Amino acid sequence: MRLCGHVLFALFVTLAAGAQQKADGAGSGTAPARAYVAAHQQEILKEFQDFLALPNLASDLPNIQKNADALLKMTERRGLKTRLLTMENVPPVVLAEAPSDPSRRTVIFYAHYDGQPVQRDQWKQDPWQPTLVKGSDERIYARSASDDKAAVVGLLAAYDALKASRAEPSVNIKFFFEGEEEAGSPHLGQILKRYADQLNADLWVICDGPIYQNGQPLLVFGSRGVVTAQITTFGPNRPLHSGHYGNWAPNPIVELAHLISRLRTTEGEILIPHFSDSVRPLTAGEKKALENLPNLDPQLKQEFQLGRTEGTRPVAEEIMKPSFNLDRIEGGGYGPNPANAVPSTATAYIDIRMVPNQTPEIVRGQMEKYLIDMGYFLVHQPPTPEERRSHARVVQITWSSGYPPQRTDIDAPVSRAFVQAVRAAAGTSLVVMPTLGGSTPAFMFEQQFKKPVIGLPIANFDNNQHAANENIRIDYLFNGIASYTAVFTNLGNFWH
Amino acid sequence: MRLCGHVLFALFVTLAAGAQQKADGAGSGTAPARAYVAAHQQEILKEFQDFLALPNLASDLPNIQKNADALLKMTERRGLKTRLLTMENVPPVVLAEAPSDPSRRTVIFYAHYDGQPVQRDQWKQDPWQPTLVKGSDERIYARSASDDKAAVVGLLAAYDALKASRAEPSVNIKFFFEGEEEAGSPHLGQILKRYADQLNADLWVICDGPIYQNGQPLLVFGSRGVVTAQITTFGPNRPLHSGHYGNWAPNPIVELAHLISRLRTTEGEILIPHFSDSVRPLTAGEKKALENLPNLDPQLKQEFQLGRTEGTRPVAEEIMKPSFNLDRIEGGGYGPNPANAVPSTATAYIDIRMVPNQTPEIVRGQMEKYLIDMGYFLVHQPPTPEERRSHARVVQITWSSGYPPQRTDIDAPVSRAFVQAVRAAAGTSLVVMPTLGGSTPAFMFEQQFKKPVIGLPIANFDNNQHAANENIRIDYLFNGIASYTAVFTNLGNFWH
To answer: Domains in chain A and their CATH numbers?
Structure first.
């Protein structure tokens, strides 16, 4: 699971207490899969660890190719028709198809086999020397153990379990394994377009990410979009002594502070006019799902040492709204002591999370209009000396291209069927979230194919994703295999 | 001239055009001094360059002692009674006294012989290998050329000129040469106290700093006080993914931006209640001086590329008021790309410039009361987890001890006499400023001795003070010598 291309050490909470998988395994139809896993535990872990031993940075083309080759063998060994979807100097997508039946619907299961860069000195071990640590919650430590090779190996093991049970799959199964997700999926859109004719499906399932913070299994029906911007305000053309020129030379930090305070409140309210006009109301199904979500706020506030939260609702509800976040602010340099000077510039880095039907284009337009209406002279490049001299207030803004949001109708037949299918493995503890707070490339599948996309994560939330000592809990992996098998076996039966 | 202990590269403006000394030398009584300087030019420059060749960082005790020893010789050679005012492991003050007459008033002329640290790679030459560069404005380049060895050598040359003229000085003359001004004068207060009985005087004259930005000679009757603070706001105890927790976990940058916007406006207005209550009104003399000040705003706005200024009056008037400056802001880390995360803290560095009768104590009290009244839980140390959890809004503030402001009554007999005395050398172009915008240790002399303090700078404003390639214009040095001699000769005669 990529998070806007940035390494995040604190993506999901490490909750020391209460961290236990609540899946009870009591669902119908998962007994054969669980029996298979129990019987083939060593085999599954062996394949997993062999695969984890291959260094897998997307930028390391020789090694990433070795991963793709290994995956090719792993899928062909299972009788899956496999091909590499290639572009020059790009990690290939490994596309593997099970024998299909035209009378059944087709589902593509997405996972990725590349991993985040590592800072070796922060690891307790070689990140590509997978290490099994026994204990009350047995784990394997390695880069990509949870993000996202667990899903790759888990899906293949689930397919083995399905075959071993001699049950017919309820849907046609394809596996789509990407090789540069952690690098920002820079070619995913092009690959989807180029190979569109081989990617026909009725549903995409994103097998990536961790489950609910309290340890309950999770389904996710969307993700927020994101667009980032840098905003710079200007003072004198060089730092000026604050005694001689302070409160005469305009201070860009003060300008920026006032600007930020006019963009949003400390309660999270966004002050850009018409910002929420394109936000569609929650559906009845979304409202119901939110009502059923366990409220983790007390636990999270304790964990994060928070005396208050922004907004008025629990975090899982707040993420149904757009958000305006300040990622960084800087002005006046770095180092042990600041100069007592009026700085020349100040810069804020923001990220805006969007929900349907907002788009990066709409948000950019609203924000720029607001800045102009506030009286700023807006530039997209560093202003010239003449621009600085001739405008009282200059602001430079630089946008990223951004992702749109994506949300699958939680009430659609496919969604209901999916919940029912997974519940067979997860039982009543299954948590259904209308959206993830973060942003994923799920919209690319929706944009290209106009098909629903559903997220089915399996990793423990305390997996150190993107950080050192990444790990997966073995029981979570095995529960995940049961969930995958449940989807293979049941989805088509519930999907009317 | 130290500026709150910080190296400032842009202290005074480099104004390419219009940079010419306007002193016309037409004042009465300076002809002998100018004749002396003309006749002894080479001798003066030789002594100056020998002195500049001695490395003079206050922290470099063996070399700073060599400077003091050289100075001892330079003063004794002139028949001045000299002693070193010492403290262990502290650069000594060199105190030199001319023969005195109890019927005359006594004036101590202050300068400093230590210099700022150097960044050698930014210099065109060895900073302690003084280099004379001929041209339309002949200059000597070296560390301390202008700040402040020009004053030291200039004062001694002025004394030579006085003696050569066989005129009696109008006041008793003492020279007080400090050796750690650029390190923040950390022991000056103690030295003044310890050697108070040797430092009796009716006036202190601070011979340091550059003249007016348009090149006119300058007298300064005060400086603003300064106190600095760091203000930190708090979000989650570690950075949290902005998609999953943004606009739920309180954003400390947003909190800080709103806080700053409640502390001051973008027009420089300070919003802390009662902040200006202790500011004494301008005197009639100060008002008159301000009216006579050349307005440099158009020139400075052009130079600094400013489309507006804060406040409503020219810079020289604005600095008569207190100021609230943001020196630096930071939050969300450094590096090429910010994480899309809610940061854990954000910090602003402020400096507050005070004018009479404000004090650091008064300002600290007002600011803290305001923060508490705004609803912040105020701490002076990093808050504990329990403090973070139990208070909605926590702010940490850390203060410097600060300097009080200092201002000598511009209408006092000594002040009027001083203006008249210097005008003898500088003519009608003399600029009289009621205060410097910056902060100096002048208050220490006032506090210890309850005597007036007046600033008499001589250096060109484009002297690269504190930066690489520091320099002094030779004509400014020679004009300075004429000014000093004018004070020696005339001050007592005008001072009734």
So the answer is: 31-223+406-494 (3.40.630.10), 225-279+321-399 (3.30.70.360)
